[in-house]
Specification:
The chain is α+β, with helices and mostly antiparallel strands. It contains six helices and five strands, in the order αβαββββαααα. Strand 4 (105-114) and strand 5 form a beta hairpin.
Length: 205
Amino acid sequence: MSNPPMSDAVRQDIARQDNHPLKGFAVIYEQKVEWGDMDAFNHVNNVVYYNYAQRARIHYLEQVDMFNLQTHTVIASSSCQYLNSVTFPDVLWIGIRAKKIGNTSLTHDYVYFSTAQQKVVATASSVIVFFDQTGKNKQPISDGQRQQLAELEVRRMAGENVDNKMKQLKRQLEGNVWDELVKDGQYTALVEDINIENQSEGQIY
């Protein structure tokens, strides 16, 4: 079943809570737990969490136009740590963010937050690898895609002032330094700087 994107109201509610485990995530996917997701032990089966992660990952990639007929990916690895059981009915908020942008791979971290239990019920990670249309040769992530990923992380975490902040950061970085930071995944440091500044200004991000 298709799930609606998270509303701005919910996102802002999370942002207002200082210690919410999903605060600072680039993308949050809202996943309704279905009756059929449970197994004979009356809790969501462990395999279903991987299905949830896949849906969250697709939603994330759609934000940067990297889930389409021209983009081919395969799962290189995935893992999930189960902290608390989940039962129907429930709605999970799944935070997903890029942990590392490699040459041909993208590593994601996930946090599953149960709205019924008001706590984290699982964490996960995955690595996807990009291939060309033949499916035989790895496809490097382009500079444009890297910048889209970096800007997605910054935009979701920095709030409405992101455009000005991005321009300001780029002005501070001369030549190709910005591109190198994006390639190396060091944009997370820039995101943290923005978060600190926004917190001091009392802004929602």
